[in-house]
Write a structure and sequence with these properties.
8 helices, globular, 6-stranded antiparallel beta sheet, alpha/beta
């Protein structure tokens, strides 16, 4: 089971008015534990007003930097983002889980690859890590970044991105799309739309020459871009995404209702974790394994509780569950009985799940 480590805040500063960048001091004896690949995230944990609050934030630094930096954008009434943006000070200690996540592809120093990146707002964080790494380690790689923001002032890491463009001149092209500020080029005004993706494919990039696409932002944006690129000829395996869930869609609600309709009351559950067994019975107070187990006293890994980060992943060894939502697990993982415990609704009388995965 992944564990948290107390880490000192090396620095914290405002990147934009509503976004703070936090860097952590990693002791030498933990550097191997905290090694990461571009696109991975850190899960932070803090007791805020007596509540155990956890959130996952993508690393915006590159593994080549020997730095561990995350950017945290202020969310309306967000407990963790408010703490980071308004209270956190240098030298404070936060509990941090080692890097995790599989958003990204392996670096191939000999390959000549063409990468496309689509990001909205704070979705730039994992993308920045990838840009730095692939441009530096793959001398024949070319990257195009399509970056959506409200206005020029809200562009996170604009200076750093511009420096990258200068450093890797001719290999990084940047297109800023703004929703609340007028651009001279009509294409760059407003959000991504199917028509704009088609226009980009005809004027800015050649689909047949694209190797991998990375998309990071809200669900609606991600799946629209994915669908358009697939229609234009890209294979789904070439399109990688990291989801920022902003709210449940009607389809999400229907899936959750369907899972709840199959729920079994009073399921006897056994948790396998760290070589130990933990037993409890589901009560009507909770609808998913994770919340019920935590209430019963289990100490299990979790972060987003939204079916996005996969921190709470476990494997069903006996019995059955239905997941309300799943944005994190691949089809082959689901086929091997992996589930997200925060979304797993028990549907059998007995259930055994293993967190040692």
């Amino acid at each position: 089971m992944a564990k948290f480590f107390p880490l000192k805040v090396n620095d914290v500063y405002k990147e934009t008015e509503d976004c703070s960048v936090v860097s952590f001091e990693i002791p030498n004896h933990l550097k191997q534990e905290f090694s990461y690949t571009p696109g991975q995230h850190l899960t932070l944990k803090k007791i805020i007003n007596g509540e155990d609050v956890r959130r996952s934030y993508s690393l915006c630094s590159s593994p080549l930097d020997n730095e561990w930096r995350v950017a945290v954008k202020q969310i309306f009434e967000g407990k963790f983002s408010t703490y980071i943006n308004q209270e956190l000070k240098k030298d404070e200690v936060i509990e941090v889980m080692p890097p995790s996540g599989d958003f990204g592809v392996d670096v191939d120093e000999k390959a000549s690859k063409n990468y496309l990146f689509f990001a909205a707002g704070s979705g730039i964080t994992p993308v920045l890590s990838m840009l730095k790494t692939h441009l530096a380690k793959e001398p024949n790689a070319n990257c195009k970044l399509f970056y959506l923001n409200k206005n020029a002032k809200s562009i996170i890491f604009k200076e750093e991105i511009e420096q990258l463009r200068n450093q890797f001149f001719g290999r990084l092209e940047i297109f800023y799309f703004l929703t609340r500020e007028q651009r001279d080029i009509e294409l760059l005004n407003g959000r991504f739309t199917p028509a704009k993706i088609q226009q980009l494919a005809s004027q800015v990039f050649d689909v047949e020459e694209v190797n991998d696409v990375f998309i990071c932002g809200p669900e609606e944006m991600i799946f629209m871009i994915q669908n358009e690129l697939v229609n234009l000829g890209l294979h789904k395996k070439q399109i990688h995404f990291e989801l920022f869930v902003s709210g449940l869609s009607e389809e999400d609600k229907k899936r959750a209702e369907a899972a709840m309709a199959k729920r079994k009351d009073g399921t006897q559950i056994t948790i396998l974790d760290g070589g130990k067994e933990f037993h409890f019975a589901m009560t009507k107070d909770y609808d998913n394994i994770l919340d019920a187990a935590l209430a019963a006293g289990a100490d299990l890994p979790f972060a987003c509780k939204g079916g996005v980060c996969s921190t709470c992943k476990c494997q069903v060894k006996k019995g059955n569950v239905e997941m309300k939502l799943n944005y994190a697990l691949e089809k082959d993982e689901v086929a091997q009985n992996y589930v997200l415990s925060c979304q797993a609704v028990p549907t059998s009388e007995n259930l055994v799940v293993d967190f040692d995965v």
